[in-house]
Write a structure and sequence with these properties.
single chain; 7 helices; alpha/beta; 7 strands
């Protein structure tokens, strides 16, 4: 990866969801930059993230105490936690009018409340040291609401975008930035090359997104060069969605 040199060498990075979606690529991106990386894994996440150069730690549960214990454990391995990245895959569930209350509550708990608790705990540690970078990977469905069958996920990610803005304004003076990246139409979502071209007409750059696009965006927003960027949600959609 060009342009970052050794900026990340030795930095303490925690990637939550490093086993899912684009998580393994994000982990590898930081490993390649010689960062010290912890991959946080909730129960049931089968990791494909790099094993040799990243530390894999379980997260005992989703309560505030579980998350605090996890970050305490991270600090034993990393020292200071300087970067937190949260990754979550899209969830297709069904029509909004037919999804159960139980499902809505479960998705909101996993995809909104849990990230909020993680961001708050990490931000407390970062503000005490006057430096930190927090980035959440969300979906364009959380901004646009036009995607069918993902209403609980869209609601959760929309809430996470808004929460990120709110907390960003509170911790900015302490050297901590909080941003999100909203992704749309990546190759992993359309794995068959024969089907990919069907979407090109709606994407100005005429291709689907690739893992390296996400890695590059994450590395920028977590770099020192991005210290004047906070409370933002970067559209990573090849121009398909524009603000």
């Amino acid at each position: 990866m060009q342009g970052f040199n050794s900026e990340f060498a030795g930095m303490g990075v925690v990637v939550l969801g490093g086993a899912v979606g684009s998580g393994p690529d994000v982990v590898q991106g930081f490993v390649d930059m010689q960062a010290k990386v912890v991959v946080g894994e909730f129960a049931g996440e089968a990791s494909t993230a790099p094993k040799g150069n990243a530390i894999h730690l379980p997260i005992g549960g989703r309560s505030e105490r579980d998350i605090r214990d996890f970050f305490d454990n991270c600090e034993k391995h990393l020292g200071a936690i300087e970067i937190l990245v949260l990754v979550a895959p899209p969830i297709a569930l069904g029509a909004a009018l037919s999804i159960s209350e139980e499902t809505y509550r479960s998705v909101i708990d996993q995809e909104l409340l849990t990230p909020i608790l993680c961001i708050r705990d990490a931000a407390r540690r970062m503000t005490s040291r006057n430096y930190g970078r927090i980035v959440s990977l969300v979906s364009m469905s959380g901004k646009t609401g036009v995607h069918k069958n993902v209403s609980p996920y869209a609601a959760a990610k929309g809430g996470l975008v808004t929460f990120s803005r709110a907390i960003a304004s509170e911790v900015a003076a302490d050297g901590v930035t909080v941003n999100a990246i909203a992704v749309s139409l990546f190759e992993v979502q359309v794995p068959d090359p024969a089907d990919q071209a069907k979407f090109f007409d709606g994407i100005p750059v005429r291709r689907l997104g690739q893992a390296q696009d996400i890695v590059s965006a994450v590395l920028y927003l977590t770099s020192r060069n991005a210290g004047y960027v906070t409370g933002e949600t970067l559209n990573l959609s090849g121009g398909r969605f524009m603000d």
